[in-house]
Design brief:
disordered N terminus; six-stranded mixed sheet; 883 residues; globular; single chain; Maltoporin, Chain A; mainly beta; 22-stranded antiparallel barrel
């Protein structure tokens, strides 16, 4: 089954699958609005789930927050490997992998942004054992030794700070135990999938326990680089974690954790949805090949991609109970090293490759004090400090075929249609040679070097916050809560960009003026000294393109150089900081929470809340970083000669072809109104949350081919509801159903790269998402042996993947938007013996559903659209032994 366009067939298929799911699907251990771990002695037979979403231990029913919880047992049973798989059981969460193994996006309720730009602050905060992982590249380790995963929906800035304006993913691992035990697991599946994991724990003394766990995952590529006879989209990663639990007294608990993860993979599978004329013509003319069948998993590249990621760190948590007060300290230091080289034109032609070498060093410290008084008042008060340093060295290469590729395009206006590719390339090389001579450049210098660009980017970020909540219970079961968070965030950033192709460093309008004046005008001062009428005449001629194939106008009534503008792929910008741009941001914000919760009965709870959220300014660490319009105004055709006075120009910082844009996006401010209802009876439970959520100044990040356009998006809002239920109709059978409805709209976004999006539905946000499952446990008498069978289904309704692409869709008036519908069925069966041995089988994407995860404009290939397909069906067998 495939889903790439909107239509009625997808809706009909959904109806069939959803109908079947109503009867057959379900899953135990997934619940909404709560958290729990095995270390919190809840009876095995109980459906009570303990969560820490509010940084206190509460039952799911008591927690007045929309939270979904996936237990460690479900993660094992469903063969959920990492956070990419997690979205199949949490309908409000969407996770996608993009250009590299480490480029992953997290979206909750339709809010989030990409992580292929390390300068972008996350909207969804990821915490592992209470430690903030500032970039998703540092949160990609396999889910091992997991107690539970909590997904908190909506702004959570009151307790989790500046990076939780859309929500939080909190992963809680198992604590070391004082009884020796553990488990080992081995999986083998199709694509030669090998997955090994193990965990062991035990005592060192009466008050010290330890644990050690690790994973190893390897899989052949699901795709093939045809021309290189290499695989792509493989898996090759491993991780390890060690823990110590020290309890010197009954009131003090110390937990120390060290972990390391290594990824070395060939990523990622791409293909073409549309092959444009530049791809079909220019790439073919230089002997390149390119994919034409999106779901064939055939790739054509001239280099094998490199994706390497090292992520490691240490954390220590101390909990000290003093009667009715508990002091908590969490200290952490982490390092992330990320490296990749990618053929970004995605053809076998040797055009260009991108490389990045990134490093992130992060120190965090949290203190908090929590009360547990018998009276009507209780409180939580804390502080958080964050210090991070980001460094990035990156480049774009000049491939051996790039000059001929450019020559083919330069000759296009001069030769008749149907001219053989080799002949057109020859004409184009004559054009380039003539241009080089006329511009005073060495012949062969345009696209004749080793690099198009080289960059060095950096961000130093210091942030601190104080936060707290007060609970007032004037009557039994009625609780009023008020909370606050004050955050101060400061960044210093540096952008050093070198555009190394000579053509990129020449403005074609200014070069025309130099030639038209016989060399008497060679700079802006000389041009500005001319009479105004002469200036306007020269600028008018300089910005008039010549007719194609000899059609009027022709020189000297036009500028014959303008045909080269399409070949100026990477133009320069002044380094930051400079005399005008200080390379600093400073944000501070007070966010708050107001909530009332009431326990109607032992089985039913209701709540209503209002909360605000905050995300600090983000820095555009990309080649599309440009000064603000308030700092510079370009002249016609990006002319410096004709540019009006501006701070950048007056300071002598203007460079050829400089345009305006953004260096950073300002802070986001979120708010949400929410009403919730939670019920729990024997054999059945449900959670309902209805919300109205908005973000002012949403930080929109659009991929432009070789960089990113970053800007604030006015206002984006979403209204909807989340509902989940768990039903145990008979002993051994557990059914679950969860659904999310989202009506997501750009309330105001007039200045997007696609034009005015105000009033449009937000692309990539499905109106409906469903996760449902059924699990049946058959016990073989009193032997202790049991057979566990599980089936689950995840659905996303047919939705536009985005609001359009800056090149392809904008040229078509934002029509022909690509769409996606998701219908995933997963199944697993495990025979668990009383002696600890378990044997099972599983299949993910059992029906081999096919859909497009995301799309992007072809790099330097106007009219081409590329994208990423979802993973095909995977299946295998598993052996596990518990001891």
């Amino acid at each position: 089954m495939r889903s790439t366009i909107t239509g009625t067939a997808g809706a009909y298929r959904f109806t069939l699958l959803a109908g079947a799911a109503t009867f057959a699907l379900g899953m135990p251990g997934v619940a909404f609005a709560q958290d729990e771990g095995p270390e919190l002695d809840a009876p095995e037979s109980s459906n009570v789930i303990i969560v820490t979403a509010s940084k206190r231990e509460q039952t799911l029913q008591e927690t007045p927050i929309a939270v979904s919880v996936t237990s460690g047992d479900v993660i094992e049973t469903a063969q959920i490997r990492d956070v990419l798989d997690l979205q199949t059981v949490v309908p409000s969460l969407r996770v996608s992998q993009l250009q590299t193994s480490s480029a992953t996006t997290f979206i909750i309720r339709g809010f989030g942004n990409g992580d292929n730009n390390f300068g972008i602050e996350p909207s969804v905060g990821v915490f592992i054992d209470g430690v903030f992982r500032s970039r998703s590249a540092s949160a990609l380790s396999d889910l091992n030794m997991i107690s539970r995963v909590e997904v908190l929906n909506g702004p959570q800035s009151t307790l989790f700070g500046k990076n939780a304006s859309a929500g939080v993913i909190s992963i809680v691992t198992k604590e070391p135990q004082y009884e020796f035990g553990g488990q080992v697991e081995a999986v083998y599946g199709n694509f030669n999938q090998v997955f090994l994991r193990g965990e062991v724990t035990g005592p060192i003394s009466d008050n010290i326990a330890w644990s050690l766990d690790g994973t190893y995952q390897q899989r052949d590529g699901i795709g093939r680089i045809v021309n290189l006879d290499e695989e792509i989209n493989n898996r090759n990663r491993w991780s390890t974690r060690g823990q110590l639990l020290i309890e010197p007294t009954t009131d003090i608990k110390i937990r120390l954790i060290a972990d390391y993860t290594n990824i070395d993979e060939i990523c990622c599978q791409t293909s073409n949805l549309v092959v444009g004329p530049a791809t079909a013509g220019a790439v073919a003319a230089v002997g390149g090949q390119f994919p034409t069948d999106f779901f064939s998993f055939d790739n054509f590249l001239n280099v094998v991609p490199v994706n390497k990621n090292e992520n490691y760190g240490f954390s220590g948590q101390v909990d000290w109970s003093l009667g009715n007060l508990t002091f908590t300290s969490i200290t952490a230091y982490r390092e992330l090293r990320n490296e990749f080289i990618q053929d970004v034109d995605f053809t076998s032609a040797d055009l260009t490759a991108e490389g990045r070498d990134q490093g992130v060093d992060t120190f965090t410290q949290e203190f908090r004090i929590t009360s547990d008084f018998d009276g009507p008042l209780n409180f939580l008060l804390g502080g958080f400090y964050f210090d991070e340093k980001i460094r990035q060295d990156s480049f774009l290469t000049v491939g051996n075929d790039l000059r001929n590729f450019a020559a083919f395009q330069a000759a296009a206006p001069l030769v008749p249609a149907g001219t053989p590719g080799a002949a057109q390339v020859a004409v184009g090389n004559q054009v380039l040679a003539g241009a080089e001579t006329g511009l005073g450049l060495p012949v062969g210098s345009i696209f004749g070097g080793d690099f198009l660009s080289r960059e060095r980017f950096s961000v130093d970020n210091q942030s601190w916050s104080i936060f707290g909540t007060v609970d007032f219970e004037p009557a039994d079961g009625l609780v009023f809560t008020a909370g606050f968070n004050y955050t101060d965030d400061r960044k210093q950033f540096g952008l050093d960009f070198a555009a190394l192709d000579p053509l990129a460093n020449i403005n074609l309008v200014d070069a025309f003026i130099v030639g038209a004046t016989g060399g008497t005008v060679t700079n802006r001062a000389a041009f500005q000294a001319l009479p105004a009428a002469n200036q306007q005449l020269l600028l008018g001629l300089g910005t008039t393109p010549c007719g194609a194939a000899g059609a009027p106008p022709q020189a000297p009534a036009c500028n014959p150089l303008l045909g080269l503008a399409a070949l100026q792929f990477q133009t320069p910008f002044p380094a930051v900081p400079n005399a005008v741009e200080d390379g600093r941001t400073q944000d501070d914000q007070l966010t708050y929470l107001l909530r009332v919760a009431y326990q109607v009965s032992n089985e039913l709870n209701v709540y209503a809340s209002y909360a605000t959220g905050f995300k600090a300014s983000s820095v555009n660490l990309s080649r599309d970083s440009r000064p603000l319009a308030t700092d510079f105004t370009a002249g016609p055709g990006r002319s410096t000669f004709g540019a009006p006075a501006s701070p950048i120009l007056n300071a002598g910082l203007a460079v050829p072809n400089l345009t305006t844009g953004t260096r950073f996006a300002g802070p986001e401010k979120a708010e949400v109104y929410e009403i919730g209802l939670k019920g729990q009876w024997e054999g059945v439970g449900f959670n309902l949350a209805v919300f109205d959520q908005s973000i002012d100044g949403f930080q929109s990040l659009a991929f432009t081919g070789l960089g990113f356009a970053l800007q604030n998006a006015g206002q984006q809002s979403v209204r909807g509801f989340e509902f989940d239920t768990t039903i145990t109709p008979t002993e051994g059978l557990v059914l679950t159903f969860a659904t999310t409805y989202l009506d997501s709209v750009f309330d105001s976004f007039p200045g997007s790269v696609l034009g005015d999006l105000t009033g449009q539905r937000v692309g990539g946000v499905p109106e409906w998402a469903i996760a449902t499952s059924a699990t049946y446990t058959h016990e073989f008498g009193s032997s202790g042996n049991k057979l566990i069978t599980r089936v689950d289904y995840a659905h996303e309704s047919n939705t536009d993947i985005n609001n359009g692409l800056p090149t392809f869709n904008r040229a078509l008036g934002n029509t022909q938007i690509f769409a996606r519908e998701v219908n995933l069925v997963n199944a697993a069966m495990t025979l668990a013996l009383d002696n600890g041995l378990e044997i099972g089988a599983f299949a993910r994407n059992l029906l081999n559903d096919q859909f497009v995860t995301t799309v992007f404009d072809g790099v330097a290939q106007a009219g081409t659209v590329s994208g990423y397909p979802n993973l095909p069906r995977t299946y295998g067998g598993v052996i596990r032994f518990r001891f």
